[in-house]
Amino acid sequence: MNCLLCEQPKQSSPSWQSLIAIEKSTLICEDCSNQFKRVDIIEVGDNIDSITSIFTYNEAMRNYLHQYKFLQDIALAGVFSNELKQALSKKKAIIVPIPMHPTKKIERTFAQVDELLKAADVSFEDLLIKTNQEVMGEKTREERLSMSRLFQIKPQVEIESTTYILVDDIYTTGTTMQHAALTLKEAGAKTVHAVTLIRAASEQ
Amino acid sequence: MPKSINPAIRDFLDGRIWLRLHTPFTIEDINQQIEAGHIEIIQGIESKLVFMNRKSYTCNRCENTDQSKFTIFNCAKCEASCAYCRNCIKMGRVASCTELIVWKGEQPIYPTSHTLAWEGTLTPRQQQASDDLTRSQEINRSHLIYAVCGSGKTEILFPPIFHLLKQGKRVCIAAPRVDVILELEPRLRVAFPQTEIESLYGGAKPTMKASQLVLATTHQLYRFQHAFDAIFVDEADAFPYKADETLQKAVRKAVKPTKPIHFVTATPSDKLLVEAKSTGGISIINRRYHGHDLPTPAYISLWKYEHHIQKGRLPKKLTDWTNERIKKSEPFLIFFHHIGFMEKAEPLFQLIHPGIHSVHAAHPDRKTYVQALRDKAIPGLLTTTILERGITIQNVQVAVIGAEQRIFDKAALIQIGGRVGRSSAFPTGDFTLFHNGITYAMDEAKSEILKLNKGGGTNPDELPFM
Ligand SMILES: [Zn+2]
Ligand SMILES: [Zn+2]
Ligand SMILES: [Zn+2]
């Protein structure tokens, strides 16, 4: 199999890892893999107990997201499976992906966060519904926070007094996460953490 | 609803195969032409059941059938298992539930009034090749122009292209690499000032006109179908075209059935040579335009150069070669086999001169640096094989570091040497292969150059290495 990003044949280097059978993602080549930079940052937010982000938003990541989301290349969902799985295995919790608006999901033909989790073989529960399709970027921080809640709990779903982890692909201003966390907490969640694949620099 | 043709849509769509939902027109305008019967809809991916009830997919845009390049997923749009093609995904994804459209209404009429404003003259040998090519086109025979680097290949094409344009025919010049297209475009615009010309490559916006002369990277031909009366493939032996079967299929799909595909190259593959010889559609030019010899490579050993450069030491032979170029104010190109290795060497070269930079295919400043080298604003560039073709820099001197590396096959070395001595003002120059061992490819390249310089290859029956 060629590297999913640069299409060059991957060099298979038989190493000690393959000898003791540690399974590593083999979807991309080493050169491409080296372009992604870890950030491994943990932040605390309002209404949210912790936000863990794995990678920085550099040019390689911008290209990756472009191909995955804009060009709809679902095959790329598994590129960061190892990292995502590792970040989500630390706590015992119910994992909840940030949902897409249904219209947007049909347009894209898939829900990008769900696919990341599926590819990483992480079980999750779709507990939230996106209620509003407005684009965040056009609003000021005040406007974003004063907007009515972006999410609601799915009908017939019981939120327990336990720990939840929200998952999103990219964390920028934090508004999305705040809204989702607050929605869960108001419904009875005890603790809400978040894990995002990418930490983008916020303008604020 | 009127059955009338929307001429703007016709002019854009003629010969193209396009995503229904991503045209430069409104959905309503496209729908109207579909209802009027001028546009046909084609399913993006076709599947058929093969052995053991497995599905076999074909992409109707790029004609890819390599099953490893299809991804199957649960589609939220068609609410079924859906397949998409990764081979042509960069041009907008084609999935099972994607609709492709082609124009099937009345065809646009292309003008027959053109001028050829090129003022040079062809050498007798160029003229002969040009006439041969026109004759091959008339009998719909594919033709190979086998012409050494710097022999004026493009000018040979002017008369046959002019001839086709005057008959209202539609013509395409395709090349595997965008650099070749970018270099050709201004020359063709000058040569054919009256002709509607369009250049297509990744990131270029299509003009909305019915372009009669299309310059395109071979990738762009995925989006054409039975469009051209002739296609000229320049640098037909270059990557990725020579190794990618779907690009070869794309060229065949883009030309009208029964119409010919012509090839122009300084380093034809044996397969191309054998085919051309068997049909007789071949012209050979072994002399450069200015009549001087092709530069022959000098071999200089550079033992364990990878180790030294990794350790931060630039071998003295390289420092000397570079210093000599700078002393003589000669622009230079130094070719590397690997980007990472080249970037290790870059700071070491910058100790010799801070103006030396490296470029590669994805480098954002590639065009700027190449122009800076032409303008003599910088002394030289380190480069991957991306600059092996289609680039002309007056008085450029060339070295290869690691000429024994596999990427430097016979054709690549001949092309790299072909950068040297192209202008009649500076018809010679330095062409040095720094190596850690001499390979078969190096010797093959050298003896082919020597043979061509001696006059070999003029007669198709005495082709070198046949
Ligand atoms: Zn890669
Ligand atoms: Zn395709
Ligand atoms: Zn579908």
Radius of gyration of chain A, in Å, reads 18 Å
The tally of helices of chain A reads: 8
Q: Largest beta sheet of chain B, briefly?
A: 7 strands, parallel
The best one-word shape of chain B is globular
Distance between the termini of chain A: 43 Å
Q: What is the oligomeric state here?
A: heterodimer
Q: For the record, what is the CATH homologous superfamily label of the largest domain in chain B?
A: P-loop containing nucleotide triphosphate hydrolases
Q: Quick one: overall form of chain A?
A: globular
Mean pLDDT of chain A: 86
Per CATH, what is the topology of the largest domain in chain A?
Rossmann fold
By CATH, the topology of the largest domain in chain B is Rossmann fold
The parts of chain A where pLDDT drops under 50 for at least 5 residues are 16-23
Major sheet of chain A: 5 strands, mixed
Helix fraction bin of chain B: 25-40%
Please identify, by name, the CATH architecture of the largest domain in chain B: 3-Layer(aba) Sandwich
